[in-house]
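idk why but the lab printer keeps eating my pages so im just putting this in chat instead. protein + dinuclear copper ion:
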Amino acid sequence: MKNKPKKSYLNKNKMKINYLRIVAIGAAIAGMAACKPANEKASSDSFLAGDAAERAYVKPGEHDEFYNIVSGGFNGQLSVVGLPSGRTLKIIPVFSQFAENGWGYSEETKPMLNTSHGFVPWDDSHHVALSTTNSEHDGKWAFINGNNTPRIARVSLSTFRTEEIIELPNSGGNHSSPFITANTEYAVAGTRFSVPPDAKADVPISSFKQNFKGYISFVSIDKNTGRMGIKFQLKTPGVSFDLARAGKAKSAGWFFFSTYNTEQANSLLEVNASQKDKDFILAVNWKKAEEYLAQGKGKKEAAKYAHNVYSDETHSATSTIMNEVMTLDPKECPGMLYFMPCPKSPHGCDVDPTGQYIVGSGKLAAVIPVFSFDKMIKAIESKTFDGDFDGIPVLKYDAVLHGEVKKPGLGPLHTEFDGKGNAITSFFVSSELVKWNIEKLEVVDRVPTFYSVGHLSIPGGPTAKPHGKYVVAYNKITKDRYLPTGPELAQSAQLYDISGDKMKLILDFPTIGEPHYAESIPAALVEKNVKKIFKLEENKHPYAAKGEKETKVVRKGNEVHVYMTAIRSHFAPDNIEGVKMGDVVYFHVTNLEQDWDVPHGFAVRGNLNAEVLVMPGETSTLKWIPTKVGVTPMYCTDFCSALHQEMQGYVRVSPAGSNVPLSWGLGKNPTAEAEKKVAKN
Ligand code: K7E
Ligand code: CUA
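predcted complex ->
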């Protein structure tokens, strides 16, 4: 969590004390365990399942029950983990270059990281959203946010690759993002930092209240292709949007956002944005927004943003710069937005599986408020308002409140649902998960986390159909939990079995990057659709060589294009001469294999670049600008067969102006061949 609980100086001390308490609890537990005989250790910690190993055990060769798709935080990636085993299956690069497979280094993938600022090779990714139909997982796509340079990415759950990235203009920190509507009509994104509109951005910072706006983007998603486009943006008052959820069932036409900094401070926010007792949850009637849009209430505003799409046919991405966006001003759209007061600096904003209850988690609040959708509608109909905020009606707290969970813990952040009428909330400061009954608002169980839990995830937990078997806690601090690894320690996940009355810890494993949110989905929904190879005959890459007969080397001015193939265990061609200093060489490598799990890699000595890892049937291009005269080896980087070490070649680079002819070959001497040709002519 980059946005740790905001704290006054007083609270800061409190946090320290709580932190010490947490460490003390940890030490006490460790100490307790140490004085007991080994076989009693597990049962002494009541939260630890005695048969933990068995419950998390997946027999070698067997598959996990769930895919757990986890954000990587500041590594800008996603990781795919199997549950309950905790085995890491894959890292999916999204916003960050990934040398391991050439993402963002190959010519085909570089456009994916293009933005209105140019090439941005990194981002900070917090929230995963899996596509749904009727608020239930459908196994098609995962969406994830880029927090720093505002972007939303769509990842295919068939190829497990990033297929599309769209930049969000008028946004300053894409934190409240992406959250999706019941039928994946939209991925919705609220700005964390309000900013002046891109078209009128050069204003004094002190003019925050007049000029800064909190834009919310509605990114439409095509049902069949998943293709994204910014349909419209809501131009709301300048506050910070933190998190959000779409309604479900009866509330499906609504969207709910937590806000903070309703004080509209622009400096020393830890004090100045913690003044008010209550901030707001913003309720957006997005169906109404669509109506206003249809009535022509939208205004086009100039705004530059990139839209990048990857094609599995050309195995290449394109980046298009867009120049305007449609905006809706709430002042001209009555009945579209309402504020519900929510104590205090709410972080998470979660909607229960029925769509009836909206849970706000005030980081600095002593209670968890639960709002009722029915009451909200009644309050709107009866105009039970408490004035307005910048022209948007504020509903009366008591009129919309279902009730408060009293003394739940310290620093509530996020809430998920088990599908049995309970909610589980994570508490950062008191380091625990707390289960409470939604109707009765009573705490029914609590377990410690090690330490300082941020997000939590129940498989299907944000959907209308939770598979309430496990909950995973994603912890910020691990301290003494693992073998120490220098100043930087791993963040962690902890898996709890929640199938019984008591939550039981069954597994503890380190994560990749800093995990924020994650979703888990039954393997059965994904496994059957997983892509195994790309069909060679469907390859439409303009530089593909679909057989060794099509391989060639072509010079275009100072560009040299190598149409190359890879198959166990050689490249064609594997000897190339006639490259000169000053040339730019493009190796277009097509993997001719049509078998699952046979990638070939390709790398060139001294290349100011990474490798490319080419999947069966795919073409990837590695750019190389020779830096030295001489013979340069190139080789396959992925151990693909018993003769993998033989999968190599040479490129001869001659001085600029040299008359060595361009020639190439496989299993023969290219220069001799070229000389023969020259002699013949
Ligand atoms: Cu709580 Cu960025 Cu979702 Cu992390 S945020 S913890
Ligand atoms: Cu191909 Cu190793």
